[in-house]
Amino acid sequence: MSTPPTGSGPTGPVRVALVGTGNIARFHASALASLPEKAEIVAAVDVDTEVLTTFRSRFAIPAGYTDLSAMLEGERPELVHVCTPPGLHLPQVEACLGAGASVLVEKPPALSLAEAEKMAAAEGGEGGPWLATVFQHRFGSGARRVRALADAGVLGRPLVAVCHTTWFRPQEYFDVPWRGKWETEGGGPTMGHGIHQMDLLLSLLGEWTEVSAIARRQARDVETEDVSMARVDFADGAVASVVNSLVSPQEESRIRIDYERATVELVHLYGYGDSDWRITPAPGFEEEVTTAWENGERGTDSGHHAQITQVLTALREGTAPPVTSAESLRTMRLVAGVYASSFGGRPVTPADLGPESPFHARMDGGGVRW
C-alpha cells in the first residue's frame, strides 16, 4: 500500500488512530480531544467490540475496527497511539511503521531490549515515520525548569540522588491474565511502574554507567519481582538509589537530587504539578538559586497532554517526536541492567547488555529466578 506523506509537507490536524481502548487509552483520547487544532481522531481499534463501541461513543470517534491492518489500510493515519498490553507492542508498532504511520507507544515500549531495537530498526529514517514512547514525566514544567537550571550551571554538579517508586498493588491486581508474567509484561514494578521515575531521573542526570541491584518477591504471588533496589552510577560521577515496589501501603513517587548548590526534590504519586517540586539552596547560593528557580518555566503539569502536544507539533514540523527510540532504549537498558545485576549477582554496565547477553532477549535472562 502507499504510505501517507511524512516530513514537513502536511498541514492541518494530524490524523490519529488509537489501538487498544482500555483505561490508559482514555488519557490519550482526552488529550487528543482537547487539541482539535492539532489532532483529529479518525479511528480506534480493539478486539473487544463492546469496549470499542463504548470508547468510540465517549470520544465521538467515527470509525472502529477489530483488525489493525484493516484500519491502517482504510484510514491511513499519520500517527497511531498504541495503548495495548506490552506483549502486543512489537507486531503492532512494526505494522504501523510499515504502513507509514508514526507511533506513540505506551510504556514499557517492549518486552526486551531486542524487541525495542527491532522497533527502532523499523523507523523510516530522517523523514519518518518515527517511534516515540510515552514517558510523560519529562514534560511537566517542573522537570523542564530543573533541566534548564542544570544546563545553565546554576545548580552545579549533581552528586547524589534518590529515585523511589513505592506503590501498592493487591494480589487481585494481578488477576488480569497478562500481569505479573515475564512472557507478557516483561517484568514487575521495575519494568511496568518505576520505569516512569527512572526515565525522569535519566533525563535529568544523563548517561548511566553501572548498576548494582537486587530483586525480590516479597509478598505477591507472581512470576516477576514485586520489589527491586539498585545503586546506579552516572557518567558525571553522580550516584543514585533506585527503589521500585508494589508492596508499599503508603504510596509515593519521589525524586531527590543533591547538586553542589541546591537540593531539588519532587514528591507526588501518579503525576505532578509545580507545587510538588521543592528546591533548597546550599549556603552561599540562596539568592542566585532562588531567583533562577522563581523565574523558571511554570504552568504545565506532567501528563499525557504535555507530551502529546509536543509529539503533534513535531510531526507537523517534520521532525522526530519525543521521546525518541534512542532515548527510550537508554531507559530500557537501565531496566535490563537492574534485572541482569539482580539475577547475575554482579554490577552491570550498558556494554554488558548487548545481543550476546541473555538479558538482551528477555528481562529475566531466560531462567527460573525464584
Summary tags:
disordered N terminus, 370 residues, six-stranded parallel beta sheet, alpha/beta, seven-stranded mixed beta sheet, single chain
Structure description:
The chain is of the alpha/beta class and 370 residues long. The protein has 13 helices and 13 strands. The protein has a seven-stranded mixed β-sheet. A six-stranded parallel β-sheet has the order 3-2-1-4-5-6, with helices on both faces. A hairpin with an 8-residue loop joins strand 12 (262-268) and strand 13. Helix 1 crosses helix 11, helix 5 packs antiparallel against helix 12 and helix 9 crosses helix 12 (325-344). It is globular. The model is unreliable at 1-9 (pLDDT under 50).
Q: Output the structural class.
A: alpha/beta
Main β-sheet: number of strands, strand sense, barrel status? 7 strands, mixed
Our estimate of the beta-strand percent is: 15-25%
* Average residue pLDDT: 96
Radius of gyration: 21 Å
Unreliable residue stretches = 1-9
| Spatial arrangement of strands, main beta sheet | 8-9-10-7-11-12-13
Give the helix tally.
Answer: 13
- SSE arrangement, N to C: EHEHEHEHEHEHEHHHEEEEEEHHHH
Q: Which oligomeric form is depicted?
A: single chain
Distance between the termini: 48 Å
Shape: globular
Q: Name the helicity range.
A: 25-40%
Number of strands: 13
